[in-house]
Amino acid sequence: MGSDMSMTEAVSQIQGQPGSIAAQPGVLMPAHWRDFWALTKPGVIRLVVFTGLCGLLAAPGSIHPVIGFVAILCIAMGAGGAAALNQYYESDLDALMKRTANRPIPAGRMDREAALQFGLALSGFSVVIMGLAVNWLAAAILAFSVFYYAVIYTIWLKPNTPQNIVIGGGAGAFPPVIGWAAVTGDVTMLPILLFSIIFFWTPPHFWALALFVKMDYARVGIPMMPNVAGEKSTRHQVFGYSLVLLATVMAPAALGLVGWTYGISAFVLSAIFVALAARVGFRTAGEGDALKPEKQLFAYSIVYLFLIFAAVVVDRAVVPVIGA
Fold it and tell me: Which GO terms describe its molecular function (predicted)?
């Protein structure tokens, strides 16, 4: 996610042309394993797996490496299954959006029912294996995270409210909690704060994206904040949430749950985030022609979350905190 055209690109180009396989009603090209892989949104899964792994590594106590691997694999499978269910439900909308039109279902490379069955099987299998091999608290949180993304966010929040990303941010915030619970069998303050970091990171991260793909969302009637409240309000909210994020990221250090290694790293990384968010928040229409600040914030926000969670793990390894 060469100059030679890939199979995916070729299918995308012939789709809709008279006489092409993809254009003929009821006729689908056989799904390739890469299409099933694409259903899992592998770009998103990388972040999910990493934050889940950080939750596992930051947790007090120990876990057998094989059991730990199984836990992370289950988190990845659960996230992938939820993503497949999301694409099953939104396939009609995906076909109308430039950013998503080449996904397996709208591109005509996969039947919707195959995506549904794949998503249900992957999600169910991940929860059962997590429960049997790790513990049932981690399995229960994993099951709820799948339900949250596939049902609460995809079916209810996303098409009905511009607060979809704000409330729906919880869907992607569970992995560190699951990783922690896999080791400890419980949930304490630090994993709750790790959840909160992702929760408050999601609005500025996603609204930065929404600002430069807002026409896609407008075309399909999804009430994203820039289309409902306008660009000016969205920009101000991006900056406002960056300040909330700063406070949330610093909370583990302020509460003594982590040490100075995390505290200093988190402050520097978050100061850069707030500075980029300020450029987006106070930018006026007509400045520039490529929405460069929005794209910079979106790109940095991904790196930022990786580094914040890496700092948690490094800090816990260098300065173990008893009782966190």
Answer: protoheme IX farnesyltransferase activity
Element spanning 7, H or E: helix 7-14
Q: Report yes or no: 210 and 310 within 8 Å, Cβ to Cβ.
A: no
Structure-block tokens of residue 119:
């998503």
pLDDT for residue 108: 87
Q: What is the pLDDT of residue 289?
A: 52
Domain annotation for the chain: domains and CATH numbers: 31-186 (1.10.357.140), 188-323 (1.20.120)
| Sign for the pseudo-dihedral over CA of 303, 305, 307, 313 | negative
- Contact between 198 and 249 under an 8 Å Cβ cutoff? The reply is no
- Per-residue pLDDT at 324 exceeds 60: no
Helices (H) and strands (E) in the chain, counts: 16, 0
Q: Are 65 and 92 in contact (CB under 8 A)?
A: no
Secondary structure (3-state) at 50: helix
Instruction: Tell me the DSSP string of 230-274.
Output: -HHHHHHHHHHHHHHHHHHHHHHHHTTSS-HHHHHHHHHHHHHHH
Start-to-end CA span in the chain (Å):
38
Q: In terms of Cα–Cα distance, which of 166, 177, 174 is closest to 207?
A: 166
In the predicted structure, residue 284 carries a pLDDT above the cut 80: no
Token pair for residue 116?
Answer: 């549904």
Q: How far does CA 24 lie from the centroid of its chain?
A: 34
Q: What is the pLDDT of residues 86-95, one digit of tens each?
A: 999 999 888 8
pLDDT digits 0-9 by tens, 31-58: 688 899 999 999 889 999 999 999 999 9
**Averaged over 12-26, what is the pLDDT?**
38
pLDDT for 203-261, tens place per residue?
999 999 888 877 777 777 888 888 888 889 999 999 999 999 999 999 999 999 999 99
Place of tokens 């789709």: 15
225 CB-near residues (< 8 Å, 6+ apart): 162, 165, 207, 210, 233, 234, 237
Alpha carbon distances (Å) from 220 to 183, 215, 217, 317: 43, 9, 5, 47
